[in-house]
């Protein structure tokens, strides 16, 4: 019989929780680890909708990317997600920045979704944990063509583009809110991330690099199916369900 701590140990072997960034709150956030697991749910966020889906299928565990508890809890109301998890007997393992940076983690999955070649991590935060990843496009692209390629491959409603000065052969990327790491890019003509601030758009223009912003959700949800495949292979007796939910915002 598989228990929660078995799943935790396996995820820890893929994306060590010790490599999570200092601000993060990754790990086993709900439950003791002793709970038996016959059904599990994977989700980017543990939203009320994700909990409802877990309850519907009888899951004993949710594995999510974003932490269900991040800021200090000052009150636990019956409507809150952590309360509902405890009430329903559902444990929660949250693999956040450790999964972003892992060898088979979010950034690697994002690079693979774009069919990049020679994928590798750079700018290590910890041994084997890279904040910034790079890869080569199958064929060179102009900036606008690359932005439209990202939109198509990620299934985005829209992407934002600051067109650089060069044709794109090599792409650097950091999923989620990763535009701050664009300053470390030296040998790529494009940078892909999920969020960027105004001054980062200005920096891209000054640097002459193509910046494509495809949304936090779209650059991270790509990890769920590959992670589910690994969990299904390792824990064959557990029924794993992927819950993608809906992006928290839409372009109109």
Which class of secondary structure composition applies to the elements? Answer: alpha/beta
Question: Stretches where pLDDT falls below 50 for ≥5 residues?
Answer: none
The residue-averaged pLDDT reads: 97
The CA-CA distance between the termini, in Å, is 48 Å
Q: Main β-sheet, in a few words? A: 6 strands, mixed
Arrangement of strands in the largest sheet: 5-6-8-9-10-7
Q: What fraction strand?
A: 25-35%
Instruction: Report the C-alpha radius of gyration, rounded.
Output: 19 Å
Task: Write down the overall geometry.
Answer: elongated
Structure description:
- By secondary structure, the protein is α/β, with parallel strands linked by helices.
- It is about 30% helix and about 25% strand.
- The protein is built from nine helices and eleven strands.
- The protein has helices spanning about 5-15, 50-55, 80-90, 95-100, 105-115, 145-155, 200-205, 215-220, 225-235, and strands spanning about 25-30, 40-45, 60-65, 90-95, 115-125, 130-140, 160, 170-175, 190-195, 210-215, 240-245.
- The N and C termini lie far apart (about 50 Å).
């Amino acid at each position: 019989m598989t228990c929660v701590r078995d799943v935790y140990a396996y995820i820890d072997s893929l994306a060590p929780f010790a490599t999570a960034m200092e601000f993060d709150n990754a790990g086993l956030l709900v439950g003791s680890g002793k709970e038996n697991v016959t059904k599990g749910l994977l989700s980017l966020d543990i939203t009320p909708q994700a909990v409802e889906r877990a309850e519907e299928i009888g899951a004993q565990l949710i594995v999510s990317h974003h932490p269900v508890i991040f800021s200090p809890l000052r009150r636990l109301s019956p409507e809150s997600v952590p309360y509902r998890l405890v009430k329903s007997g559902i444990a929660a393992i949250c693999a956040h920045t450790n999964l972003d940076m892992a060898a088979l983690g979010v950034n690697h999955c994002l690079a693979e979704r774009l069919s990049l070649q020679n994928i590798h991590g750079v700018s290590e935060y910890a041994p084997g944990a890279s904040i910034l990843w790079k890869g080569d496009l199958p064929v060179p692209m102009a900036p606008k063509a690359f932005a439209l390629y990202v939109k198509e491959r990620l299934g985005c409603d829209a992407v934002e583009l600051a067109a650089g000065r060069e044709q794109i052969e090599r792409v650097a990327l950091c999923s989620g809110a990763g535009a701050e790491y664009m300053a470390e890019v030296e040998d790529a003509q494009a940078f892909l991330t999920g969020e960027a601030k105004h001054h980062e758009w200005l920096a891209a223009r000054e640097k002459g690099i193509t910046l494509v912003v495809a949304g936090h959700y779209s650059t991270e949800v790509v990890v769920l199916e590959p992670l589910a495949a690994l969990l299904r292979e390792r824990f064959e007796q557990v029924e794993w369900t992927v819950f993608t939910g809906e992006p928290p915002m839409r372009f109109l």
